[in-house]
Design a protein that fits this description.
about 290 residues, alpha+beta, Gyrase A, domain 2, Cyclophilin, 2 domains, seven-stranded mixed sheet, five-stranded antiparallel sheet, 8 helices, about 25% strand, elongated
Amino acid sequence: MLKRESDWAVIAQFFHSRNGVGEVDIRSLSSTKQLIQYELFPLGDSCVLIRLGTTINEDTHKIVIAVTRLLQNNDIVGINDIVPAFASVAIHYNPVQVWKSRRREEAGHETIYDTMCTRLNQLLSKLTLDGISNSNDNQKIIRIPVCYGGEYGPDLGAVAEHCGRTESEVISLHSSGSYLVYMIGFAPAFPYLGGMPKRIATPRRGTPRTVTPAGSVGIAGEQTGIYPIATPGGWQIIGRTPIELFRPHHDQPSLLEAGDRIVFVPITEEQFEGWFSTENEVAPIV
């Protein structure tokens, strides 16, 4: 918290670069086998966006996870949140802390943004090919039980009709493989998943529901996801899981993290209804 008005005046001059909008900072990380490009952009007055690609794919995702873990495992003064996305990582920072922690060699920086970029570049230059290729060594695979159709999956029939398949075929396809958690967003603990078969891709509902129950498993276009809390939504709901994805009372409120993999496991209505009378509090990790 700033104690003097003069603090604001001093810090204000550091918020913007000479052109008034912030300069794009482009760097590369290299090894004998691979060259990785990244770009730094200002995102408001207290965030740096590290753009690591322009497409959604697993190769870019591995770089995103490697950068995220590198930042999490190193202490850069002023950073208060690290947010991975499909092809970028957002670094939110406290401008006051960054300004007050500037070292002698950083005193000539014209903006706080310049200081943050310098610190990020110094850290990112340590990222090696091995660090990226091994970024998924500790990847979790989490089994998510799902009761498909009926009361818990009211749009399963509509999805089957759209795709020209039976409901059983949609269930089989949806639960046949593993899904990569690319990012968490939209709502607390909502996972954006990759890996759904295109054969069951279905457009969103024409009219969104005002309330979609927590645990609902839906399809929207070529994506599938799980609603962690009750919220309005227009995804086609094909099932529901009894697993609690958003756990605000836990140290890690989101059950899933970017980089995890999940497997959907079909269960019956009886298993769903009996889930809460057992000790099944969390999804099993395999």
